[in-house]
Amino acid sequence: MKGYPIxxxxxxxxxFVVVSKFLGEFFGTATLMFLGCMGCLDGFDNATTNxxxxxxxxxxxxxxxxxxxxxxxxxxxxxxxxAAYIYGDLSCTMVLIYFVAQFTGALCGxxxxxxxxxxxxxxxxxxxxxxxxxxxxxxxLTSAEALAIEFIxxxxxVWACCGVWDPRNxxxxxxxxxxxxxxVAAISVAAGPATGASMNPARTLAxxxxxxSYHKIWIYFVGPPxxxxxxxxxxxxxxxxxxxxxxxxxxxxPREQVCVCVVHNNESHFxxx
Length: 273
Fold this sequence. Notes:
It is found in: Membrane. Belongs to the MIP/aquaporin (TC 1.A.8) family. One of its GO terms (molecular function) is channel activity. With 273 residues, the protein is mainly α. It has helices spanning 6-11, 14-38, 50-72, 78-87, 92-116, 119-128, 143-165, 176-195, 201-211, 223-239. The longest helix is centred in the N-terminal third of the chain and has 25 residues, at 14-38.
């Protein structure tokens, strides 16, 4: 061991790896909230649209996957971490660690945005609706309809994650960041006017806390997590197939290279360790 760099010894320990993954999820989710919600902020002589908000959130996800995908898998969403656990790609202990990182990262990311942007923009968003980047169902929807929409769109996202984790896709990982950028953008543009297309309890909670605005927040803590439990079970036992020929595919590295987020719509008052 003499002469062996101390940082290499430390970085190879289990504790260091766990801390690294925690920080990857923390800063990844913080980036999602800061950059994504900045794109939802009506201010600086810019009026956002549902399309612009969807695109911004989608490509923010791409940035996070490119940065932290090899570190923690860039889940940035408790629902994705739940699905990874059910799918067999994440331990129970790491799921809990990811949860803490994601929720605290979301709170810090949105808080940083409020710290650097004029307060007047956030105050005006509360006058016009439920707050900047706050997800809430459109007034034309019943609670059951909004719950169903959040369950379905989150299920689509979770199935996409399961498809990426499928052993048969081990050699098709290079374009995953772009694919998820377009996927999240498509879902966000489609479902944004209805529910804000959250798909992510951490993404929903942070703006609610900072704006003290909690209109029907329970929908976003029931629909997406329910999809995060049911959909990976269905995919795992109906669609997933193992690769028996080791020469046909190489093992995925890492297998949990995915993430999640969503868009606020002003019209919606709105792997193992």
